[in-house]
């Protein structure tokens, strides 16, 4: 292997330094091919080209004798900073295009910023679809297709199951393959999953609400017979599960190969910023999904059809399918430019050469095996690759810390709107919109700020882990805010008796003398707020006998409610459809500290990801991210919502009654919900803090003499490039 050489010759026109790196090839006949990085100044004083060299290595004198501003026939031209020539190692195509179609206009996008833009759009669409639309419309899908809660839970889990199944295969083989092609096909599969998810709307009969104007009042027909509750529509859950499975398959390359592709094609210092922008788009996606999805739910699912119910009615089903059609079409379109990118961007070889290895040093030196260019190209290397990662304690504990953070994020995204809905007495759509407004600045801002801080302070691996530790401790202190809570709005028969007294033994009693003759049933929960600021299970349970033809603030008004007492005048009062508005004085404080918890939880995400990339060998980064995602999803993403959900369910006061079977929870006890949320948050934050501390203590950085292009820093395997690093020209800011 030829070592870096310095050769100078000053003749008034040319000064040349040649760095010649032999590039091992898997093909024996290609052993003579080399990578040559030549920097020089020419009388032309123009940028030089990026081309393909012949197997013979030019001497320094040859490089100086030939004008650097010209190219030989057949070379692909790409402009770089003045005075540097970057040559492809194995004659690979560095132009952007599809096959032989590589028009010059496309080369404007053949940069790291161009890749970042398209990957950001893809991650935005993935977040908006999987973490936004699905969480927003899951209630409407349950209602439309007669699904139980555990069935909708299986639909949500299908995404993580698919990701766990595909991660090892994709990260191992894709990490050593053509990453943009894996990414492009993944986004295309994700788009097909979205279109499939919307398919049941077009293959089923029109939705019939079965509602009349007088349903719900005292003496009216209160519910449908139980025999109509079951239908064959529940079989469509398998279509939804398949759509989610395709979502999981398609998104797998995005957060493994996409991250490493960005990291490989930018300077090490800029890598955290690029990754932060990429993940910020992924965070803004769910926020947009909550907002746009909530807007679509205000449109009736059968567009253009007149219906006599409003969105507040429990029988209403919104247009849940529109978002999936749009996201699916957009994903198919965005996959086309991603498929056109080359295996690596023009000029990226300089970043590989100049990268300083920060990989954890294993005592037995087995980490050096990963520097072999042929390592990881066959299935037989898979067990050894896994073993190398298992021997890296820093990587293992960063994975465990990521799993604890993922548990909190998954729990927050799933039950955050439900927490706001219960604490502040909001409707489901209001809570989803409110949570979206909270996540945009906190989650998106925290994600970008984390990458910015790593770049601003030029943090190395150990410093990055300490930053993660600081963020985790801060969010741990902020989560103590859940010691306080907003009181429940008074609800007759649930939190208090109809006369205002306490419930005996905490048992529910929805029947009183004022509604005993109404024959009210519990099948349909449709809360109303009386003029006495007390909530009732339904208009029937409030003793209301008439429905006003005029709306008040866009809500239906019920008259002659015998259970509602007027504050000033004698006689029955009236009630409005919907929950009573909460006037909790602790609301600003709770929201402020929830913002801090979300901000610092997401603030540590990009630094933790950067530390994972730094603590493993370069050739194992994609595979390491794949293994980390498996650990995070298996220990965090999948069980997280289940753990949070089971704890929150313990605070339920009023359960749905579906023909004698227990359904979902209607009313939670706010004090118990805050207490259980606090316990879950403290447990996972303490575990996360512990894992970051252990990762920091066990991290063993390379010795100081480790240089750019060290044995596990570059594919070229040059170990002593550090002494020549000052000779390379300064790179322009990206």
Automatic annotation (TrEMBL):
Domain Kazal-like intervals:
508-562
Q: Where in the cell is it found?
A: Cell membrane
GO: which molecular function terms?
A: sodium-independent organic anion transmembrane transporter activity; thyroid hormone transmembrane transporter activity
Q: Which Gene Ontology BP annotations are present?
A: monoatomic ion transport; sodium-independent organic anion transport
Q: Where is the signal peptide?
A: none
The cross-references to Pfam families, in alphabetical order and at most eight, read: Kazal_2, OATP
Question: Major facilitator superfamily (MFS) profile domain location, by residue?
Answer: 115-698
Q: Does the keyword Calcium apply?
A: no
Domain of life from the UniProt record: Eukaryota
Annotated stretches, region: Disordered: 52-75, 703-734
Any single Gene Ontology cellular-component annotation: basolateral plasma membrane
The identity of this protein, by name, is Solute carrier organic anion transporter family member
- Species of provenance: Pipra filicauda
């Amino acid at each position: 292997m030829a070592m870096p050489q310095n050769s100078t010759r000053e003749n008034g026109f040319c000064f040349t330094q040649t760095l010649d790196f032999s590039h091992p090839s898997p093909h024996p006949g290609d052993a003579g091919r080399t990578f040559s990085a030549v920097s020089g100044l020419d009388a032309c004083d123009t940028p030089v080209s990026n081309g393909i060299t012949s197997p013979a290595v030019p001497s320094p004198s040859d490089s100086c004798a030939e004008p650097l501003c010209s190219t030989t026939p057949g070379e692909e031209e790409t402009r770089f900073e003045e005075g540097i020539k970057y040559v492809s190692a194995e004659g690979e195509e560095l132009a952007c295009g599809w096959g032989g179609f590589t028009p010059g206009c496309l080369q404007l996008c053949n940069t790291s910023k161009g890749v970042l833009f398209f990957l950001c759009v893809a991650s935005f669409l993935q977040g908006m679809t999987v973490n936004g639309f699905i969480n927003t419309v899951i209630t409407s899908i349950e209602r439309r297709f007669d699904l139980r809660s555990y069935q909708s839970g299986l639909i949500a889990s299908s995404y993580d199951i698919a990701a766990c199944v595909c991660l090892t295969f994709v990260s191992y083989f894709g990490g050593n393959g053509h990453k943009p092609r894996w990414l492009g096909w993944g986004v295309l599969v994700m788009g097909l999953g979205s279109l499939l998810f919307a398919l049941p709307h077009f293959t089923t009969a029109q939705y019939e609400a079965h509602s009349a104007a007088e349903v719900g009042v005292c003496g009216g027909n209160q519910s449908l017979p139980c025999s109509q509750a079951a239908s064959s529509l529940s079989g469509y859950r398998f279509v939804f599960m398949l759509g989610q499975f395709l979502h999981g398959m398609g998104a797998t390359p995005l957060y493994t190969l996409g991250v490493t592709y960005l990291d490989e094609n930018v300077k090490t210092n800029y890598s955290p910023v690029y990754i932060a922008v990429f993940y910020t788009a992924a965070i803004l996606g769910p926020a947009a999904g909550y907002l746009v999805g909530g807007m679509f739910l205000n449109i009736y699912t059968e567009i253009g059809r007149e219906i006599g119910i409003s969105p507040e009615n429990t029988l209403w089903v919104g247009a849940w399918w529109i978002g999936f059609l749009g996201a699916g079409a957009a994903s198919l379109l965005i996959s086309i430019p991603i498929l056109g990118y080359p295996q690596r961007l023009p000029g990226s070889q300089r970043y590989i050469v100049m990268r300083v290895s920060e990989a954890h040093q294993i005592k037995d030196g087995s980490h050096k095996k990963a520097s072999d260019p042929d390592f990881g190209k066959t299935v037989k290397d898979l067990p050894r690759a896994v073993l190398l990662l298992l021997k890296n304690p820093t990587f293992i504990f960063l994975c465990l810390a990521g799993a604890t953070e993922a548990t909190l994020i998954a729990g927050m995204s799933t039950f955050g709107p439900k927490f706001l809905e219960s604490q502040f007495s909001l409707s489901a759509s209001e809570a989803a919109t409110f949570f979206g407004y909270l996540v945009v600045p906190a989650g998106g801002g925290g994600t970008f700020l984390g990458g910015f801080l790593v770049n601003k302070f030029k943090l190395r691996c150990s410093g990055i882990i300490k930053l993660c530790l600081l963020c985790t401790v801060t969010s741990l202190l902020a989560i103590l805010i859940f010691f306080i809570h907003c009181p429940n709005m008074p609800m007759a028969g649930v939190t208090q008796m109809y006369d205002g007294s306490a419930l005996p033994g905490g048992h529910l009693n929805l029947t009183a003398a004022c509604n005993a003759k109404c024959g009210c049933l519990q099948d349909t929960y449709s809360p109303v707020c009386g003029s006495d600021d007390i909530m009732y299970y339904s208009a029937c349970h409030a003793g209301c006998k008439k429905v006003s033809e005029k709306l008040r603030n866009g809500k239906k008004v019920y008259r002659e409610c015998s259970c509602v007492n007027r504050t000033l005048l004698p006689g029955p009062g009236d009630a409005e459809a919907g929950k009573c508005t909460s006037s909790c004085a602790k609301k600003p404080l709770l929201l402020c500290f929830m913002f801090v918890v979300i901000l610092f939880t997401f603030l540590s995400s990009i630094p933790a990801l950067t530390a994972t990339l730094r603590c493993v060998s370069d050739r194992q980064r994609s595979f390491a991210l794949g293994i980390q995602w498996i650990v995070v999803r298996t220990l965090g993403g999948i069980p997280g919502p289940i753990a949070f959900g089971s704890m929150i369910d313990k605070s339920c006061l009023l359960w749905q009654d579906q023909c004698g079977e227990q359904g979902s929870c209607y009313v939670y006890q706010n004090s118990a919900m805050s207490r259980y949320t606090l316990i879950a948050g403290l447990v996972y934050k303490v575990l996360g803090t512990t894992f970051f501390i252990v990762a920091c203590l066990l991290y063993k950085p390379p010795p100081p003499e480790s240089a750019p292009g060290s044995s596990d820093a570059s594919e070229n395997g040059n170990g002593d490039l550090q002494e020549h690093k000052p000779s390379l020209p300064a790179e322009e800011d990206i």
